[in-house]
């Protein structure tokens, strides 16, 4: 159930230096990413139109890319402009290209119907390069469907259990009931914990003397983008009313991009707006998140193995599933709508 | 063709210490095994009823087990007794449990219809902890269906060919025709070799000066349990009549437990009743058996690869197949009977 | 689309020393190869007719082969001549054997209908042991269908792009248009480049001072044998008219043998007729070819992965595909003819 008509993160900007080719499969489509001499990113289907050889093993010649199997040369629009030993270039000798937008260090790609690609739909992730925030670039890879990872992000009751020594901490936080709001293209979750123990990854830096108030307020939007205002601060300053005092604030920015039906690229970053001149703090936060994401990965891959053993397992829903259930419903609806467009129902003639 | 309504060995007792969880898949069912504070072994389906996360990665809290994904807590009956952030526990929030019996160092499990589980059907394996016998605990793992291993055990003509330097020895023993008796739930095989060379694994310990009489007398019973009286002694003392003199006697005890259709847990032990105060003898016997079982494993995995290459290969039966043919017939019959119960034929209404 | 009624190379002669067994799967059939005491090579289906155990793990006893699972003994015709513990040998106790011809260091096998096996159809590869030529024995292994490798060999426009530092060199050579002649059982390709830079693997040995004329003239015949006259020499001596002066000449001899539908044995050699008394030259040429074949392997395996990602990719033909298109058409026709013979159409009775 992969949604094709949507913007996905294909790469970090830094993964595509000038004069290099990046091979990455997205929604089962192999893609070769590279930069024109102007710096603009180009995305080709990573199969030469001749025999399917990977263009990511090709040679960049200025603003042209040569397949290094039989030497066909392509311009930035994907049009073949040279075939060794042949004068006439058949007009169908073209490789498919995909709309690409580079914004705030992320390369966004649209592999569905290009006529529907509207860059204004790309969510705001300005924290990734905002001078008031600091973060490092994270990437991990799953051999599971992306929805199992979305489930994880849509129920943060898992924090104290999966991440006792990093993002988690006080098990009381799992029992705090979040507010779930339905958005047109996603879901907004607001979880507050008041007077609880701080999370270990923050406590290592802030060393708060007593209890804190903690919040995780995030939108999870289609196709699978996670944007969160989170943090904690000493209790007693009315954080819930917006009064942030000595807070450790974050803008966790995460994107899931299906590689195939059963594998997923996972881009993430944890911008913070305190101690922004101390790279060691930035690194320490990043490393704690990397450790925590490995904890999630262990659990989700294990869950995936359990679910795949037999097809008869039935999940029992609980109250904490509200956000994930709604999101899965949104995905199913969007998928049905896409299928209806690509396979329109024939009107029965009378 | 896996029989579900049967007792299988799930583990050695020593694999489930107090306060630890053992994950093991049995007949395609993932199982988490652990001990109540009383020492009684509990077997849960290794999937939390909520989202299928493995409970074997959970946390034991006295006589309760907590899923470490979202914190659901279960009592020893599998009933959910706590859901973080939720007052009411839905009655269907239960994980499946399985009948378990611990006996003579083996943990037996029944993953089929629990109402049919009768502990009196568990075969006698008292040699595993009888003070008159000594042995070590063996385990190996196959990536083949269990029946190929059963075939191997049901025709010991393979001993001199597969195990020339361990269990085998004199090729004359392969030509000794065994007596095969049909049992209701298995088959009894009796093989005698008289005046032959001793098997290397015994000769290393006993150093017999001349020819021996050798016997392998075993029951192989459903679903796949192998219980053998075997040994050898100097010829000329009428061993066949029960007169055991200076004998090396064993009670090989083996159990095959399908993990999946194409993988098998293999529990084994080789109790001996001589030199029982010499741990080096016990270790030497065990090590020889381990080496020999690796020889079987190499052959059976190779055979499996050959059989899987194409589906058109036809086996030519020979006389030595009597026991294995009968056993496979028993399995097929038992399987048919199980299917008939779980999928009863609808009586056609007239 | 594997052709069964054809001679394939099964092995280099040196792979089957006396008293050793070679296991090799050919067209999905596991084969055990060995030599009678006379030196004649015998090919058995590598499955004992009893239970399918691999005979390649058996024991040679003079001109007989014993299965080392249960001890059945077979003569060179595949007939079982001994079953331990059994007097009468059933007449159907036979393992299948295959026609084999050893010629010029190659062992040819026929796994299809033996009545059609005509050794006179084996192509001439005498350069492999002709005293006027020198070469070493090459083998590599692909996890792709053999036809992707055939495609590669049928369009040498790839030489400068895939092999810039070995077999390739001047990109002008890719633009030289080859002559393609249809043969009854294959295709003949003639490519000439005049006044071009020499290929690096030759230049390392010959160190030509200026431009060369280069040729690749080869037959690629069913099922998948590649026989080439290739070389280069200083320009200006009318090489095209057959006037070879200071030439580096080769008779590249290659054979693709499908192991399964998706894996291929690749036997190759690069005989040369200059500096034949200098083993270092022979080794240097061989090593350059080995390096180049690894370059092909990298490209073809990458192409295979791209093609397998989705089934909707459509190749755009170009002029350089003439030879490979014709060869694929020949294969498809031969395959259809084989199918028609093994599944004859029933004539409808009136």
TrEMBL record, chains A, B, C:
Name of a matching Pfam family: Rieske
Keyword Iron-sulfur: yes
UniProt superkingdom: Bacteria
GO molecular function: 2 iron, 2 sulfur cluster binding; metal ion binding; methyltransferase activity; monooxygenase activity
Ranges annotated as spanning the membrane: none
Keywords: 2Fe-2S, Iron, Iron-sulfur, Metal-binding, Methyltransferase, Monooxygenase, Oxidoreductase, Transferase
Protein name as annotated: Vanillate O-demethylase monooxygenase subunit
């Amino acid at each position: 159930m992969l949604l094709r008509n949507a913007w996905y993160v294909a790469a970090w900007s830094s993964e595509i230096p000038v004069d290099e080719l990046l091979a990455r499969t997205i929604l089962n489509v192999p893609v070769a990413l590279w930069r024109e001499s102007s710096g603009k990113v180009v995305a080709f289907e990573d199969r030469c139109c001749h025999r399917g050889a990977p263009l990511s093993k090709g040679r960049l010649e200025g603003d042209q890319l040569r397949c290094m199997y039989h030497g066909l040369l392509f311009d930035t629009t994907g049009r073949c402009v040279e075939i060794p030993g042949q004068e006439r270039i058949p007009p169908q000798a073209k490789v498919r290209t995909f709309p690409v937008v580079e914004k705030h260090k992320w390369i966004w790609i649209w592999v569905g119907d290009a006529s529907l690609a509207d860059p204004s739909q790309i969510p705001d992730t300005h924290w990734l390069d905002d001078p008031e925030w600091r973060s490092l670039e994270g990437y991990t890879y799953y051999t599971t469907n992306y929805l199992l990872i979305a489930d994880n992000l849509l129920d943060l009751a898992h924090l104290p259990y999966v991440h006792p020594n990093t993002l988690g901490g006080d098990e009381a936080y799992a029992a705090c009931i979040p507010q779930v709001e339905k958005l047109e293209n996603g879901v907004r979750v607001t979880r507050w914990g008041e007077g609880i123990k701080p999370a270990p990854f923050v406590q290592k830096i802030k060393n708060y003397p007593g209890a804190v108030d903690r919040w995780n307020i995030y939108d999870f939007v289609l196709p699978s983008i996670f944007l969160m205002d989170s943090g904690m601060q000493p209790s007693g300053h009315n954080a819930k009313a917006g009064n942030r005092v000595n807070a450790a604030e974050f803008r966790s920015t995460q994107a899931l991009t299906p590689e195939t039906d059963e594998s997923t690229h996972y881009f993430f970053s944890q911008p913070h707006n305190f101690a922004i001149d101390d790279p060691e703090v930035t690194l320490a936060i990043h490393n704690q998140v990397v450790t925590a994401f490995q904890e999630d990965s262990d659990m989700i891959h294990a869950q995936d193995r359990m679910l795949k053993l037999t097809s008869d397992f039935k999940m029992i829903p609980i109250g904490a599933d509200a956000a994930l259930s709604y999101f899965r419903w949104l995905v199913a609806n969007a998928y049905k709508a896409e299928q209806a467009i690509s396979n329109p129902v024939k009107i029965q003639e009378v």
